[in-house]
Design brief:
It is a single chain. Helices cover 45% and strands 10% of the residues. 20% of the residues are buried. The radius of gyration is 37 Å and the shape is elongated. About 11% of the residues have low confidence. It has 8 helices and 6 strands; from the N terminus they run H-H-H-H-H-H-H-E-E-E-E-E-E-H. The protein is mainly alpha-helical.
Length: 319
């Protein structure tokens, strides 16, 4: 297909592959199961909570969830805004798990529950309704014992006290159940930021070309106009934009993705005349994608010959 030649150089080029670019899909911001895997990595293996109370359980759970929070943001494939959103959601998760422990611990341990020093609870669950409430509620119901509670003056629990371990395990189960909706919310691919549009008046070379074209039109200077057009096409080409002229040596069907055809479409061998070239932009594969379709006028060969004959008859003068 003929590339831009300002209609004078006659330079032509071979047909180019102008298929759409094959862009590999970007990975999601968070993969399915990624947060649960990070939680398993952050949770110490073989944690011994024998003889511990609710405060120790709350501290152990808190350390695991804060480690998860840090690693999750580090592995997230997204920009600053999405990372801040993930931090907010995980903060809500941490507060909700703490609140669950606060509500369930009196049923597991008869003594009052206090919080570890320096850990101020901030109840922000209402910011994300339905995200983790159901998962935490199910675990809370499982932990509530059936029947009467042991009296304060009853015999001490047996040596093998598993209450702290069970409470810790329930908190981890609640966290895992709540991480599923969080992964779903952040499973889409990140959107690249849009490049800010540069004002046209700041493009000095483009403004100079417009100035030259306007000056050539004002002066009716054909040479200056052709020179400016050549420079305009070259400037566009340096930016990956090509002016593509209709190639009469190729079948029209191979150029329909770049040009609109007007006129005698039923004629077996119509004459074709370019009205406007096509504008295409170069993509990553080296192919070109149409930006503005060109226009081609089709007219009948017989009609063209008849027009020529009419012109000859009109030009003849009787002797």
């Amino acid at each position: 297909m003929t590339e831009h030649d300002s209609g004078r150089s006659g330079r032509t080029g071979p047909p180019r592959d102008r298929a759409e670019p094959r862009v590999a899909p970007q990975p999601p911001m968070i993969g399915k199961g990624q947060l649960v895997r990070l939680l398993d990595d952050c949770e110490p293996a073989g944690r011994d909570l024998r003889g511990c109370g609710p405060n120790e359980v709350a501290t152990a759970v808190d350390s695991v969830l804060w480690a998860l929070r840090t690693k999750a943001v580090q592995e997230m494939r997204a920009g600053r805004q999405a990372r801040e959103q993930l931090l907010d959601v995980l903060d809500v998760l941490i507060v909700a798990v703490k609140k669950m422990l606060e509500g369930v611990s009196p049923s597991v341990f008869p003594q009052a529950v206090t919080h570890a020093p320096g850990k101020q609870l901030d109840d922000r669950r209402s910011q994300h309704p339905g995200l983790i409430g159901k998962a935490l509620g199910d675990v809370r119901d499982r932990l509530r014992p059936h029947g009467s509670h042991p009296a304060a003056d009853s015999e001490p629990p047996p040596v093998k006290d598993t209450r702290a371990a069970q409470l810790y395990k329930a908190a981890m189960m609640a966290a895992r159940a709540a991480l599923g909706p969080v992964e779903d919310a952040f499973s889409r691919s990140p959107q690249p930021p849009e490049a800010p549009a540069r004002p046209l008046h700041k493009d000095t070379s483009l403004m100079r070309l417009a100035q030259d074209l306007a000056g050539a039109a004002r002066q009716r200077d054909e040479a200056l106009a052709w020179e400016a057009i050549d420079r305009l096409c070259s400037e566009l080409e340096t930016r990956g934009i090509r002016v593509i002229h209709f190639d009469p040596e190729l079948e029209p069907e191979r150029q329909t993705h770049l040009f609109k055809f007007h006129g005698a479409g039923d004629d077996p061998s119509p004459q074709l005349e370019e009205l406007r070239p096509a504008i295409a932009v170069e993509v990553t594969t080296g192919a070109h994608r149409s930006v503005l379709a060109g226009e081609v006028r089709c007219f009948s060969s017989a009609g063209a010959r008849g027009d020529e004959a009419d012109e000859e008859e009109e030009g003849d003068t009787p002797s």
